[in-house]
């Protein structure tokens, strides 16, 4: 069975969660989307995904969550060998400077998106980060060209000499 690369969305407000998932729906054909409304639920999903031999390519995470906050979860993921390579995005309207700096320094935060966001910008960031992930960790990136940055993938295939999708 072929491994899957997941997108994990962590947001405690149902309408915001639905909006994020709706905005990134074009990626779902190749990147299953899992949703959690707490850091604890996200941890359970992460364990399940990893235990099944799959990966988390991208997490879109709110900062203010019930229980542990989003920055704590992202730092924890960075310190876990199974998820340190996951591309991490903080989507929030409430993280202070100290928390944001911690996310950048300790969780290898790739982007900070302020609420409310623009769909076009969110989709662009998701495409860029998943393309980075696929180019770094997939031996056969050709199958992802239809939803990711096809030009970057084609350039990578040309320069690496990998012209097959098997």
Strand content range: 15-25%
Can you give the helix content as a percent range?
A: 40-55%
Q: Biggest sheet, open or closed, and with what strands and sense?
A: 5 strands, parallel
Q: How many beta-strand runs?
A: 5
Whole-Å distance between the termini? 14 Å
- At the fold tier of CATH, the topology name is Rossmann fold
Structural class: alpha/beta
Give me the CATH superfamily.
Response regulator
By CATH reckoning, the class would read Alpha Beta
Mean pLDDT, to the nearest integer, reads 91
How many individual helices? 6
Spatial ordering of strands, largest sheet: 2-1-3-4-5
Just name the CATH architecture: 3-Layer(aba) Sandwich
Low-confidence stretches: none
Helix and strand string, N-terminal first? EHEHEHEHEHH
- Structural shape: globular
Tally of discrete structural domains: 1
Whole-number radius of gyration? 16 Å
Q: What would the keywords be for this entry?
A:
6 helices; alpha/beta; 5 strands; 166 residues; Rossmann fold
Word description of this protein:
It is a single chain. With 166 residues, the chain is of the alpha/beta class. The protein has one domain: Rossmann fold, CATH 3.40.50.2300. Helices cover 44% and strands 17% of the residues. It has a 5-stranded parallel beta sheet with strand order 2-1-3-4-5, sandwiched between helices. The two termini are 14 Å apart. The model has no long low-confidence stretch (mean pLDDT 91).
């Amino acid at each position: 069975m072929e491994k899957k690369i997941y997108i994990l969305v962590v947001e405690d407000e149902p309408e915001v969660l639905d909006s994020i998932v709706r905005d990134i729906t074009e990626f779902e054909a190749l990147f299953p989307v899992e949703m959690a409304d707490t850091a604890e639920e996200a941890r359970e999903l992460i364990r399940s995904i990893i235990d099944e031999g799959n990966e988390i390519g991208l997490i879109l995470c709110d900062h203010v969550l019930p229980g542990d906050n989003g920055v704590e979860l992202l730092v924890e993921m960075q310190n876990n060998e199974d998820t340190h390579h996951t591309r991490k995005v903080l989507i929030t309207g409430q993280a202070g400077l100290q928390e944001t700096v911690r996310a950048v320094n300790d969780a290898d935060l790739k982007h900070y998106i302020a609420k409310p966001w623009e769909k076009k910008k969110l989709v662009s960031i998701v495409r860029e980060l998943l393309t980075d992930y696929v180019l770094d960790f997939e031996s056969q990136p050709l199958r992802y060209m239809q939803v990711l940055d096809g030009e970057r993938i084609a350039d990578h295939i040309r320069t690496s000499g990998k012209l097959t999708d098997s």
